[in-house]
Records
---
Amino acid sequence: MSEQDFATKFKISKNILKNSIAPKRYEHSLKVVELAEQLAKHYELRLESCLIAALLHDCGREILIENSIDFANKNNIKIDRVERLQPVLLHAKIGRLLANKKYAVSDNEILLAIKQHTTAAKNMSRLAMAIYIADMLEETRDFSGVKQLREQIGQISLEQLMLECLKVNFNYLFKTKLLIHPKSVKAYNSIRATL
């Protein structure tokens, strides 16, 4: 795809997204795009893939949380036990479907990055890691330790940064007594085993 074709497609996707999700969620998506662009440069990732995946990572949020189980059932999206108990997680799987059907994204690596941005997964691509990290560390996020994590961008490997983000997420889930998705544990273990 030429640079001009990509710019046109990206602009169209931005306009559709802006009219599909809440303004605050849209602004968050733009911040994720900004950080994904930095990550692409630091870690030599394909820029266009990072930008599209970052922009559309939360496109599934157009479906309200209280409607997400019904939407998933009607669209043959498998729901596991943790997602049934914490349906907010389903927006990633729903997002994968909408990115493909509504935004005409056919690149499977981009679709997987969208699908994996909430729970992570075993053997994630570097693109998927970048989207997970960008979603967690974009500039409006404000949690204890976020500044230190941002400072590590480009200082440690993408895989090490992903591990640090997963650790922070686990601590948050422990403190709030939420369930930890088994895919998150598998993601941590598969990355940890390679370092």
Note: The mean pLDDT is 96.
---
Amino acid sequence: MADTTKTKMVWIAGGTFQMGSDELEFPDAQPVHAVTVDGFWMDEHEVTYGQYAAFVKASGYKTVAERALDPADYPGVPVDKLVPGSAVFSAPAQAVSLDNPLQWWQYVPGANWFQPQGQATQLKNLKNSPVVQVSYEDALAYARWAGKRLPTEAEWEYAARGGKEKQKYYWGSELKPGNRWVANIYQGSFPDKNTGEDGFLGVAPVKSFPPNAYGLYDMECNVWEWCSDFYRPDYYSQSPAKNPQGPADSYDPDEPNVEKRVQRGGSFLCSDQYCIRYKAGSRGKGEVTSSSDNLGFRCVKDKVN
């Protein structure tokens, strides 16, 4: 298997595209609007465990999921329950209603970037898989250490489209072109029965599926990816036409007092049954200190004149 401890970066020439989606399911991705971005370099795949391990070894950085919890932030919770950990997908034993994600998400003590499902997983088996269980803060720390940055939402979508317009998916108009899976999503009955028809029940190693026209891998599904923009559902109605950087602050009407950043691309848990936001132009969001075993990132870099 290829050594992915060093990431190749792909030059994405600047241009103009139609950003967003006109599908009714995605009101926060509307209106579709013309956006121009300058050229930039982008990692050809998500940051891997091997790469993140090199960062941690060099810097001594400790991720949010590894840090002790402050009892003041969790009033009423017994101190013995305040142990570091993170969110892990856990398939229920039978079909359940899709209106309560707590039926398939669990807070697992000890879950973090090098043990994404807790004590059951170890870094040595995951070198070439995307690093997960990283918060926005954790992703930003790596990017700065690497001399890079996180992509803006506009840069991410422009790169993911690969020069294609008006496509249902980033890879094209068909879910299974040529009757083949071209991205790591969920097949079967969500969330209780994943058939693994695409070859993977969870995160796939980077470069397991074909690249897009720009030479970028896994811009759709596998793991969600952090972007630098604050999240607001109404931002597209006032977004600048050139190099938008996102709104000045965060607002999510579902959780108005929680600071959130944009996430893009969907993950291995997305399907047409649930979490359809792997489709072209759609948006995700996440609280900035949160992490999970389907959330990672990749970096970009400005052109050096």
Note: The helical segments are 49-59, 136-145, 153-161.
---
Amino acid sequence: MLKILITAYGPYDDWAENASWLALQAFLRDLPDGVEIKTRLYPVDFNQLRTRLESDIADQPDVVLHLGQAPGACRVELEAFGLNIGRDRGAAAEQAFPLASDGPDAYRSRLPLEQWEAALRSEGIPAAVSYHAGAYLCNAALYLTHYFCEQAGREPLATFLHLPLDPSQVLADQRGVASLPVEESARAIGLIVDDLKRRHAPVADGVGIA
């Protein structure tokens, strides 16, 4: 059975809730059959992320979908690249550090992001492939997932989904930024999981996920 690890982040700064966790909870209300889903709620902290992610990757999920909120985003953003760079929030550029001293400069997701973008848009969900996940935890989660998989001799299949804020967060915060109901973000997660299931079905014939 296909094993998928889906992660989300908890509150941080002035955000009492995180759209990624809200969307994941909404997705979990109607779990699909024929797939093993494991979920994790990570704190917004570099060291804890690294430790907990390494442990979760050791459990050998087939696919990893990381979720995070992106204040100001108006669509689901499918992150294609994880860069070997980290920087604390508010830190100057010269304070950036490598996530893995022996790792490559970047990893590119092997998942069909462009096809997912088209599929989500055809279902009325605004989506786009993004080529820069920043230099904070979102990028770190994507990069380190690939790195830990390679260190274990496994082919990494992972991406990061940046999700817009839920309208309830915008109403409470009154900053007037873009939003998307978490039910729509959850539907996007479900469509991606359904596609992964279809791609995984031919494994017995030696095909596997494209």
Note: The chain has a mean pLDDT of 92.
